[in-house]
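User: Sequence for Catalase-related peroxidase below. Tokens please.
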Amino acid sequence: MVRRSVVHSSRRSGVVTRRSVVLGIAAVGGFLATDLGAVLYARGPLGSRSRLTPQAFVDAFHKVAGVHRGYRLNHAKGVVVSGFFESNGAGSEMTRAAVFQAGRTPLVGRFSVPGGNPMVADTVDAPRGLGLAIGYPGGAQWRTAMLNLPVFQDNSVQGFYDRLLASRPVPDTGKPDPTAMAGFLAAHPETVNAMTAIKRQPLTSGFADSTFRGLNTFYFVNANGDRTPVRWSLSPMREVRPPDETSSNPNRLFDSVVRDIRTEPLRWRLLVTIGEPEDDVRDATIAWPADRHTIDTGTVVLDSIETESAGNARDVNFDPMVLPDGIEPSEDPLLPARSAVYATSFRRRAGVAGEAPQVEVGEVAQ
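Assistant: Structure tokens for Catalase-related peroxidase:
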């Protein structure tokens, strides 16, 4: 039976569940999202009312990482993958979304590392991202942008913006100003707690043996209209290994996953964790207790990898608010903010040739 939660969402204003118009294994078009919350209001650090717009985030990313035409504002360095989700049908009691009916659904995706600089060198402790767009051409699509972190660093739009600016490298050292970062952390204890949890997580060798999490909470809605708060994650099916601390290869993570997929498809279990009434659905900096009920809904398989280029997942906007019928956003304030900024980023890079891709799959030696 479906475990029904008494957590109910309040009436959402301006939140739109949007359908994708694109998905193909051979060719994938871009999704031009509507700005949700075109003006994002957040309380400033001194209690004054301040305005945060998508353009403010564009400017902040450019201050931190510079301007790189044709690239994403964040997670600029990446490589394209494709494959499928093999659902075992176990999630269909909780959601009427077609993707969770038993069967196979094609997908495209993108491995990435955070930051707006596409030339950044890979490091063993850098967060790793995986965006997926799951669905059939012309049909409803589910998009998710995941990280290999146990929690997110921020629980508010203002907090994310402030942390972004505090991380701006100082020219003399190439690292953030310690005074600015200390001031930010003093004002954001939730980020301090989140970073402590992140540092406790053991490092793994690369993308292939990383656990990826959606981090934000969503609702699964079944055929009867029952709404269940959930968080999802991908658990690797290959052996988890420690990182190679000796490598100086600036593309170590990407070169490794290219070789991995060339050798055999990579697989993850798609796990859905069910929230209880006491679990906070608005705060992604707080992990839900480990004893929460989790359902194994099937297997994500990645069996192809290629360089980013026009017509593949380079042009996909992995907006977490692109959801099929049967999945709805929670009240987490970061969700509409992410959607708005993702849309602005997509419009800025759409149709721009930009610089050459930083990860050339064909140049990776066997």
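The longest strand covers residues 294-306.
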